[in-house]
Design a protein that fits this description.
Blueprint (H helix, E strand, L loop, with lengths): L8 E4 L2 H12 L2 E6 L4 E6 L2 E7 L18 E6 L3 H9 L6 E10 L2 E11 L5 E12 L1
Parallel strand pairs: 1-4, 5-8
Antiparallel strand pairs: 2-3, 3-4, 6-7, 7-8
Length: 136
């Protein structure tokens, strides 16, 4: 396995429930884990994330729900529809329904169809499907 240059590591309140959420509900794969540390490295379609249960090692302040305030994790996916369908079948709340967004980069627009959810601890996850490029 090749490691990405940037891999966010998030602290969670319940490791077992979070692993179940990421693997069973979204489709992440466990690359490896250290059960004794309540830690796992997971991946999904090229994105990588580390999950560890709160342990006071990395904390800079008291964590309160929702965690990750001020950040959202964009996760590039092949298609958003299968993920969205599975979440809705499991009655998981959608934070922002699917919408097309076009972001200017110099003299072109980069397109994404995206939706957002919050994980069990409140981290904001933005799933984005590439829609291509439009020239300005």
């Amino acid at each position: 396995m090749k490691f990405n240059k940037l891999i966010p590591e998030i602290s969670v309140t319940n490791f077992e429930k979070s692993i179940q959420f990421y693997t069973e509900l979204i489709g992440f794969k466990i690359e490896y884990q250290r059960e004794e540390s309540k830690f796992a490295m997971i991946s999904f379609q090229g994105s990588q994330l580390m999950i560890e249960e709160l342990n006071d090692v990395w904390n800079t302040c008291k964590l309160e729900h929702p965690f990750g305030r001020g950040i959202n994790f964009q996760i590039g996916v092949n298609k958003i529809q299968p993920i969205l369908k599975h979440l809705k079948e499991n009655n998981y709340p959608i934070f922002a329904e699917p919408k097309e967004h076009w972001y200017r980069q110099e003299n072109q627009l980069l397109g994404n169809k995206e939706f957002l959810i919050q994980d069990l601890d409140g981290y904001l996850l933005r799933f984005a499907e590439d829609l291509g490029i439009k020239r300005l």
